[in-house]
């Protein structure tokens, strides 16, 4: 019975050892996923636009400080123009406002046109260089009035 019992103990111990790294790998995966989810949520903190209350989302929060905010009429016109340029961006309204503000800030800072268009192409989702140029023009419509 001695050798058989020893073999059973080794078998049980080796099963525990094999489970150990798998458990650590699983735990690491869960932790990485949790951190990634937290970062994703932290990057998009702007509230959705409700269209009520006479204010745009984050208008008083200074998300991009020093830039003029479009009033409701200007924002509606901007979204209508954007719908003709890249309709999928209209559905991302809170992010679109943040990105439009960042573009306005660059306009106010005097960033050269070619750099503006490149930045807008990177900033907005899946737009061509031509569409990016049209977006810059659409932002200028309300941004220039407030600067």
What structural keywords apply?
147 residues; mainly alpha; 5 helices; 0% strand
Polypeptide structure, described:
With 147 residues, the chain is an all-alpha fold. Helix content is 69%, strand content 0%. The protein has helices at 2-43, 72-85, 93-108, 113-123, 129-146. Mean pLDDT is 72; it is low at 34-64.
Number of strands: 0
- Helices and strands, in order, run as HHHHH
Structural class of the helices, strands and pairings? mainly alpha
- What integer is the average pLDDT? 72
Q: Count of helices?
A: 5
Low-confidence spans: pLDDT under 50, at least 5 residues? 34-64
Distance between the termini: 90 Å
Beta-strand share of residues = under 5%
Envelope shape? elongated
Helix content: 55-70%
How many whole angstroms does the radius of gyration measure?
Answer: 26 Å
